[in-house]
Design a protein that fits this description.
It contains 13 helices and ten strands. By secondary structure, it is an alpha+beta fold. It folds into two domains: about 60 residues, Molybdopterin biosynthesis moea protein, domain 2 (Alpha-Beta Complex); about 230 residues, Hypothetical protein af1432 (Orthogonal Bundle), CATH 1.10.3210.10. The strands form three sheets. Strands 9-8-7-6-10 form a five-stranded antiparallel beta sheet, with no helix packed on it. Helix 3 packs antiparallel against helix 4 and helix 5 runs antiparallel to helix 6.
Length: about 375
């Protein structure tokens, strides 16, 4: 199930609502933890502590945005997540990858989204921390396919790239859960075991006949970095396959914008900044530039929440090397942000038809 986080004035909070973020008292201590279902007693306790605003977790389908509710891509996206969830459970038991079923997910669920004008906005759909791996596989597949489209790849290559993105972390099914879900820093030994997941993926895929080489090498090399600091082969520059370099960008972006066992999610703007800072060393500059130029187009018009509690629409971003968003707040006020960290959340929002023309330059 996908969720979004919406902020409510305390007077509008009702019993049965679920907290999307912890509620802190005036001393900075946790009064109520994330995930608690509220009753009237708990609401009264917040009133007694002079809490004025709380973050509420809501199922995606209860958002007021009709464009999001009616968009068929939402159902394809959530369907892909559900199918990947089931397939990963199968792999953990039988130690084999049902590649045919993964291909069906790509063809029937993900590629239609890749071709839509709203593609990367689906990445803003909130997901529970415990659902990370399922959404991450789908998101990396989706974003890899979209980047391939923007780079001018053919349909067959985009399909293979999307499949590689969907399978890129499948080797994590062979990593112990206590390492995958560890909240703290991994030990050196645990990190070594975690880094074996790329090789595990390749080994599992090697058991499958007629799987294209670019799918397998994209999966194996997606953690390689241009400066040789990656793994498992410490390859550099041209020795890293194009598909692996694309998946690397998609993987970094989505990981930063997700809640994981050991870290909280950052906004897409923080992720874009990380890509910009690494595009001349670890990540492919041409791929990052292509993605970041399109990122500006997709973010315009999106709804954001600020750390001040205000919310509004992005009407200007600036160059991706120097993001300086201007927000039109709900009350009509224009705010120019001097720091992207002033944005606390980007709501899941599907681009309406009148904005579709901005995607045309992407391929």
């Amino acid at each position: 199930m996908a969720y979004t986080i919406n902020h409510y004035e305390i007077a509008k909070v009702k019993p049965g609502m679920v907290l999307g973020k912890p509620v802190l008292n005036r001393y900075g201590r946790i009064l109520l933890a994330e995930g608690i279902e509220l009753n009237q007693t708990l609401i009264n306790r917040m009133l007694e502590q002079y809490i004025t605003m709380v973050a509420i977790r809501e199922e995606l389908f209860y958002q007021n945005d009709r464009i999001l509710l009616e968009d068929p891509g939402v159902f394809n996206y959530l369907g892909a997540v559900a199918e990947v969830r089931n397939l990963i459970k199968v792999i953990r038991h039988v130690k084999k990858i049902p590649v045919k079923q993964f291909k069906q997910v790509v063809e029937t669920r993900i590629l239609p989204i890749v071709e839509s004008c709203a593609a990367i906005n689906y990445l803003n759909i909130d997901r529970p921390r415990e659902e990370y791996i399922f959404h991450h596989c789908v998101n990396v597949a989706l974003l890899s396919g979209v980047i391939g489209k923007w780079l001018g790849c053919g349909k067959s290559e985009i399909a293979n790239l999307t499949l590689a993105g969907l399978l890129h972390d499948i080797g994590k099914t062979q990593v112990p859960d206590e390492i995958l879900n560890k909240a703290g820093k991994l030990t050196e030994r645990e990190m070594q075991m975690m880094q074996l997941h790329s090789a595990h993926s390749y080994k599992l895929l090697s058991q499958t006949e007629n799987l294209p080489f670019d799918v397998m090498i994209g999966v194996l090399q997606h953690h390689e970095r241009l400066d040789g600091s990656g793994y498992p082969g410490h390859f550099q520059q041209s020795k890293i396959h194009l598909h692996a370099r694309i998946i690397a960008v998609a993987d970094v972006y989505d990981a930063i914008t997700a809640d994981r066992s050991y870290s909280n999610k950052a906004t897409p703007f923080v992720a874009a900044e990380v890509l910009a800072n690494n595009m001349f060393s670890k990540l492919d500059a041409a791929i990052c530039t292509t993605f970041l130029e399109q990122f500006e187009c997709f973010m315009l018009g999106n709804l954001v929440e600020l750390t001040t509690g205000q919310s509004g629409e992005i009407i200007h971003l600036g160059n991706f090397l120097n993001l300086s968003p201007i927000i039109r707040c709900n009350n009509g006020e224009l705010i120019k942000l001097c720091n992207i960290n002033q944005i606390s959340n980007v709501r899941a929002f599907i681009i309406p038809d009148h904005k579709a023309s901005r995607d045309g330059s992407g391929g």
